[in-house]
Specification:
189 residues, 7 strands, alpha/beta, single chain
Length: 189
């Protein structure tokens, strides 16, 4: 199956390739600011829709756009600005349960479907040294919440409730279902 991925995320690309898709990557650079009064849920939905709308492609090829945020106590953690910001995020996630919320939009021509998936993740209590070691040995500045479950942060997880691939960056089963649904909406020629 041929798709356009409106993202530069290597994790999303790998997940889709593993599902057997041929992918053209077209990153979309939009303003990803959280609007005043907007919930984390509303933010990921708005951003994935905007990315899908802004992406140009052949009308017969599905466009996949996604946005993932980590949320704790109703606050969004996007990508950290620097290592100090990543440290502060990990310190707050330590010993707590947070949500990884991904909005997925699939556009085909003028039709668009959007869905949101939430995975609850509980981190064990982390000490200062292990956070420092993690930050030293992992590239985390492009990861929501300042961590990558597919890397060293797997050892931080005490419990997970929901799809693991959502925590990595894209709920593949949901994405495939949305592609199938949107293709079924197209008039047969």
């Amino acid at each position: 199956m041929e798709v356009i991925l409106a993202s530069q995320s290597p994790r999303r690309l790998t997940l889709l390739q593993s599902a057997g898709m041929a992918i053209e990557v077209q990153p979309q650079h939009i303003d990803e600011s959280i609007l005043p009064g907007e919930s984390v849920s509303e933010t990921v939905t708005r951003l994935c829709r905007n990315k899908a709308r802004s992406c140009k492609g052949a009308a017969h090829i599905p466009i996949i756009a996604a946005d993932t945020l980590v949320a704790i106590h109703g606050r969004a953690f996007g990508q950290p600005a620097d290592l100090d910001h990543a440290r502060a995020m990990l310190e707050e996630l330590s010993g707590n349960t947070h949500e990884v919320i991904t909005g997925v939009a699939v556009r085909l021509g003028e039709n668009m479907l959007c869905e949101q998936i939430t995975t609850r993740v509980r981190f064990r209590q982390l000490d200062t040294d292990e956070i420092s070691t993690y930050l030293l040995h992992n590239e985390i500045l492009d990861k929501a919440g300042g961590y990558a479950v597919q890397g060293g942060a797997a050892s931080f997880i005490e419990a997970i409730d929901g799809p693991l691939d959502n925590v990595i960056g894209l709920p593949v089963q949901t994405t495939i279902r949305l592609i199938q649904q949107i293709k079924a909406m197209e008039p047969h020629q």
